Amino acid sequence: MKPLYLLVPHHLYVIFIFLHTISNPKILFPNLIAYILMMGTVLGVNGINGSHELGHKTREPFNFFMAFSLTTSI
What we know:
single chain, mainly alpha, 3 helices, about 0% strand
């Protein structure tokens, strides 16, 4: 298994943790803004770079699916 494939479940896990964290009603507004900005940056960088690398071999359906799942989650 390529280590790059591990980026997809990790990406989805980070999204889950982010949504769980910001759903806390006790979170302060400045912290909420910081979480949102941080997640936009992290998911944007990881999603774009990972999907770019996985998208090089578009004839392989699994790679194409993994690249597509990274780009649609950002």
